[in-house]
Amino acid sequence: MLAVIMAGGKGTRISSVNSEVPKPMIRILGKPILQYQIECLSSQGVDEIVLVTGYLGHVIKDYFGDGSPFGVRIEYIEEREPLGTAGALYYLKDRINDDFLLLCGDVIFDIDVQRFMRAHKRRGALATLFTHPNSHPYDSGIIIADGSGKVTGWLHKEDERLWYRNRVNAGLHVLSPKILDLFEEPKKTDLDREVLKPLIQSGGLYAYDSPEYVKDMGTPERYYAVTEDVRSGKVAAKNLSVKQRAIFLDRDGTINKYVGFLKDISQFELEDGAGEAIKKINESGYLAIVISNQPVIARGEVSFDGLDEIHAKMETLLGREGAYLDGIYFCPHHPDSGFEGEVKELKIDCDCRKPKAGLIFRAAEKFNIDLSKSWMIGDGKTDVLCGKNAGCRTALILNGGGENSFNKTSPKENSANETSPKENSANKTSADVNSPKDISNEGTSCARALNGQTATVQTFGADLVGSSLIECINAIDLS
Ligand SMILES: [Mg+2]
Ligand SMILES: [Zn+2]
Questions:
Q1: Are residues 341 and 209 in the same domain?
Q2: Ligand nearest to the CA of 295
Q3: Mean pLDDT split into 10-residue runs, the chain, 479 residues
Q4: Residue 344, domain CATH
């Protein structure tokens, strides 16, 4: 497999860290960024690398030579004048005849390269962008894609936007050699605007969503943050070939305020502290994944597109608080049929409606998640049972307002809750993954102080209870 690395960048913004070397040679814990890249690629089946150099290119050439100490063959293309982020591809026209990786020499990443390549080939794409959610989508370019991953829109930083999914181009790509036909002469070319974005028309551009670690070092602050992530092992731990840990989150009454069946986007408002809680999950390295029953689809009250727009609003609002979701899974089904306006084919007894664990199992397969080291958090009995059926630990939010939640059984004005989360030590039975069962009657009760009175609420055997998502997250050891 071949990788082309654009290593000609000058890196002026980061000159306060080190101005003596080209940007890809900036060191993290004593090792150049480019070496991290080459080692990662080499360990995963990339055996040929083309380095496109410019500014102080001889420094790069002197360090890496022909690549043999790193287990790869390295060739160099030296730009006499800067050709932008893509112009040098002209020189590869007659040299490449298979899909190849294209990346920038100034990002730190650790990704499952073969998985990325497989996704590209499976779709027969002309180009595949590695995309991920980030903590500042409001000032990032946003990629819009349909359910199959086909890119349908590309918003640049300056483009107007209302509600949008948090999907940002990370700067890693797989390209088909057919792309090289577009280059007719060696001239300055912008990869994003002049090569990739125009591919949307042909339907050949795809997004590959992944939570793996990819970060650039555009500013000194980001440089120091990335250094810390390399040091702590977070960069390597996010590679999807390594088992992941996740916090699965119910939606209504957990992330957003409970309003019964949420049918209109204007009803969607974040719960207090939800952004802070999810940001904390993001920073811990756990995946944040929504697991939600949305029978409003089967009931014919919300369309799939309408739900997507609601989720775009959720991601936009979370993004404003620096928080993001790694995945959103929902069940559109409902078992009881015979109502007016319903969508007949969705009125089925599916395997994904909570308390069944089908959605969690799907996420676990996609993201290689160790469920025994993961949590399910929600405000209803079905959330706790779903988490147990998946073999996760569980936390119950008492003040969500949803089905079976605390507010259902007590007046609203009594919902003030001063107690701190506590371990439900009386109930430590682990779930039997293979035989889901209703354990609601086995759940212990938990006494809560309510305006001086004591009320008893069912906890359905949850490992932990709290009054809100942030209270639960603060009580969970995310280290
Ligand atoms: Mg709920
Ligand atoms: Zn379902």
A1: no
A2: 2
A3: 89 59 89 96 96 90 96 94 88 92 94 97 97 94 95 94 96 96 91 95 97 88 92 96 98 96 96 97 97 96 96 98 98 90 92 97 98 97 97 91 51 37 40 32 42 65 94 95
A4: 3.40.50.1000
Residue 454, classified by CB atoms within 10 Å of its CB into exposed (0-12), middle (13-18) or buried (19+), is: exposed
Which residue, among 467, 323, 324, has the nearest Cα to 395 in the 3D structure? Answer: 467
Q: Are residues 257 and 168 in the same domain?
A: no
First to last CA, the chain: 36
Residues with CB under 5 A from ligand 2 (ion): 331, 333, 350, 352-353
Burial status of residue 255 (CB atoms within 10 A of its CB: 0-12, 13-18, 19 or more): buried
Same domain, 261 and 391: yes
Residue 153 Cα to ligand 1 midpoint, Å, equals 32
Same domain, 230 and 248: no
Check whether residue 110 and residue 189 sit in a common domain: yes
* C-alpha span between 26 and 449 (Å, rounded): 56
- Of 273, 274, 303, the closest CA to residue 290 belongs to 274
Taking the C-alpha atoms of residue 123 and residue 239, their distance in angstroms, rounded to an integer, is: 22
Q: For the whole model, what pTM was predicted?
A: 0.88
Which residues are catalytically annotated?
A: 250, 252
Distance between CA atoms of residues 318 and 335, nearest Å: 32
- The secondary structure of 409-478, three-state, reads HCCHHHCCCCCCCEECCCCCCCCCCCCCCCCHHHCCEEEEEECCEEEEEECCCCCEEECCHHHHHHHCCC
Which amino acid is located at 474 in the chain?
N
| Count of the separate structural domains present in the chain | 2
Verify that 336 and 290 share a domain, yes or no: yes
In this structure, which amino acid lies at residue 10?
K
Position of tokens 């207090």? 272
Q: How far is the CA of 187 from the centre of ligand 2 (A)?
A: 52
Q: Which of 206, 234, 262 is the last residue of a domain?
A: 234
Domain that holds residue 383: 243-475
* Residues 219 and 271 both lie in one domain: no
